[in-house]
């Protein structure tokens, strides 16, 4: 329920509504408008290439070596975004904050980026789409990226003063996610309404469970 409702203070209760899809309560790190269905990839690790393996110290002995290292990192980020682009990926969903070089090349290659997803949001997206997070490094760089979901839309959404991401996925299960937008004059009223609705849903769950038995 926490991932499927959003509270907006300062608006009349009559402005409350139900929207199809998911509302991610953060702004785009990069936004590239796209029409129609688009392929989306979910990642749970930074996409900025590391200069050394975990636990291995990388020593930079000169300014020239340092600049060469930055150039190598930039080329890896560009190659990754070109690969996503060649696989028609238009949306990158990340549980971690991505480096500026990744965001820059994503925007350059027409890939929208949403970062800092919670573990609950990641789990919900995986359940809806049936995909697993994509691991780009140590992979065959020529194979097709199969860990993609289909998003029917992805656009900015303004809830009060908060900029959000509104995204709809093609579901692989019977569950078709919708989000409840709860509006009220103050946050306390919204919290009361949310608690009452959650209690009602729990009661209905128990009722249908009893009927099934």
From TrEMBL:
One of its GO terms (biological process) is chaperone-mediated protein complex assembly. It comes from the Eukaryota. SUPFAM superfamilies: GroEL apical domain-like. This is BBS10 protein. The gene is Bbs10.
């Amino acid at each position: 329920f926490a991932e499927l409702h959003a509270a907006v203070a300062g608006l009349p209760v009559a402005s409350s509504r139900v929207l199809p899809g998911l509302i991610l309560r953060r702004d785009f790190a990069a936004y590239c408008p796209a029409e129609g269905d688009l392929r989306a990839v979910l990642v749970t690790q930074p996409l900025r290439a590391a200069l050394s393996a975990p636990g291995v110290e990388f020593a930079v002995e000169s300014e020239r070596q340092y600049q060469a290292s930055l150039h190598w990192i930039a080329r890896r980020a560009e190659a990754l975004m070109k690969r996503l682009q060649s696989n028609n990926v238009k949306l990158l969903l990340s549980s971690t904050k991505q480096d500026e070089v990744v965001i820059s090349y994503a925007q350059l290659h027409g890939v929208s980026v949403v970062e800092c997803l919670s573990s609950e949001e990641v789990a919900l997206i995986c359940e809806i789409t049936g995909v697993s997070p994509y691991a780009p490094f140590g992979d065959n760089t020529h194979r097709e990226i199969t860990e993609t979901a289909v998003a029917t839309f992805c656009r900015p959404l303004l809830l009060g003063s908060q900029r959000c991401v509104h995204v709809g996925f093609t579901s692989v299960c019977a569950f078709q996610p919708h989000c409840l937008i709860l509006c009220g004059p103050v946050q306390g009223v919204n919290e009361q309404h949310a608690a009452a609705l959650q209690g009602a849903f729990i009661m209905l769950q128990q009722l249908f469970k009893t009927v099934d038995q």
